[in-house]
Amino acid sequence: MQIKKSRYKAHLFICNKSRTDGRKSCGHEVDPDLKTILKNEIRERGWKLFVRVSDCGCLGVCDAGPNIMIYPQKIWLSAVTRDDIPEILHILEEIMEA
Ligand code: FES
What we know:
Blueprint: E1 10-15, H1 34-44, E2 51-56, E3 68-71, E4 75-77, H2 85-97
The structure holds FE2/S2 (inorganic) cluster.
């Protein structure tokens, strides 16, 4: 095993878990363009080397989804829609300026 520190100042994890058993899951509700839009906005702001956006599995708060978590800041966002992108970018801006 190798242990390294992440080079990212913030890492967004977008839950894309899709259940097939009828239970609520983010993958069925998350905006399919959300990740691409966020990545493009991050790139345009010059944050690409410092902010990472990744898909992830279930975060355990399925009923509140679609969910995004931002680490290491421990910020959890729920019921996220495309309309929330400006606020997400504002959160990232504050992280970048900290
Ligand atoms: S399916 Fe997204 S938090 Fe469980």
